Amino acid sequence: MVTMRQALALIVAASLAVAAVIAVVFQDNIVRFNLNPRIPYQIYTPPPPPAYGARGAWILWPSEAGAGLADVFYVHSTTYAARRHWNAPLNAKKADATLRRVAAPNEAGPFIGLGAVYGPRYRQATLFANFTHKYDGLAARELAYGDIEKAFETFLKERDTERPFILVGYGQGGLHVLGLLQYRIATDEALRARLAAAYVIGEPTPISIFDDSLAAIPPCRTPGDIRCVISYIDLEPTFDDDRRRFRDRSLAWGDNKKLMSLPAAPLLCINPLAWTLSLEPVSADMHVGAASATGLQLGETPPAIAKAIGAQCNKGILTVDPPQQNFLRRKHWFGDHWRAQDFNLFYHDLTADATRRVQNLNITLEQEARFLAPIDEAVDLKVSPINKAPE
């Protein structure tokens, strides 16, 4: 016979089990609810802006300007997930620790050996902004882009204008790189001439922008292309919800530096195993190497885990084989798959690709310097009288 105490214990255990199941089933909704800043952006006061003349405003600043083959401007992914702010304060300790320990080593790390790398801190939009196209989320990202544009102006003043450069942006940082391409580089012939490539990783890049605002900077269609854009979002097959979210909720920059929603827009996907637009699967034999650089000092090169994954572009998303190594797998639980990843599946592939494109750009620049620009229009010379000079 069951006593009252035993019955209560069974009820409590059953309630806890039901609560646990509910928490697992609705975990993403619970996380998003808890990340949502409650203050409307119209009455929100953003943190003070960064002063990019000070080194503290930069997570990465080269020890020697002009070192290596090229300059790299890197914009980090979202590392701020608190609900207190729509835009992260620069002194947010947890976000900055994640930036230094996880994001920068894995995202900027592949490009460190290439040359002088510049990576600004900025008032990044909080993680929740990724899940809304309402005014608050858009305004937070627009303010963040304003910081990045100011940082880019400092970058331009510091660098030798004759050197090649690369743009690198992950997640939210990729969105801001697309803004730089549209507002600062597409309209500046001299800057375009020195752009080896732009890498937009983990952020949807609508193909339609290359027919409009980025007509002058096309996608990179072959491994040898320069002055072009590379973009992919790498997900394992199990992340169906994230795949749908990326496909259904892309953004583009408008003419007035405002974001506009492009639902269900076709997305650019460059397969980083072949560096082409091909929709065919590419085997792991082409994989140069994944790596986890988390916790390493910038400049330390993690060992390559080669031939670990195959990949295929599928409706704008790069579907990757689940790696055998658990530490190279995106985590499922309670929002971890939305945060900065502590590995880079294409770490060494990116290094090889960026090096090749910079070398190709240098060859092209040398060839272009040998020839004068063609004369666009004929010039009619008027007959000038010849007068004999007096003796």
Describe the protein's architecture and organization.
By secondary structure, the protein is α/β, with parallel strands linked by helices. It has one domain. Helix content is 32%, strand content 13%. The chain is built from nine helices and eleven strands. The strands form three sheets. A six-stranded mixed beta sheet has the order 1-3-2-4-5-6, with helices on both faces. Helix 5 packs across helix 6. The longest helix has 24 residues. It is globular, with a radius of gyration of 25 Å.
Keywords summarizing the entry:
single chain; 391 residues; alpha/beta; six-stranded mixed β-sheet; three-stranded mixed β-sheet; 9 helices; 32% helix
Q: What is shown here, in short?
A:
The protein is an alpha/beta fold and 391 residues long. The protein has helices at residues 4-25, 27-35, 93-107, 109-112, 135-158, 172-185, 189-194, 240-248, 347-369, and strands at residues 58-60, 70-75, 115-120, 165-170, 195-201, 229-232, 234-235, 250-253, 259-262, 311-314, 317-320.
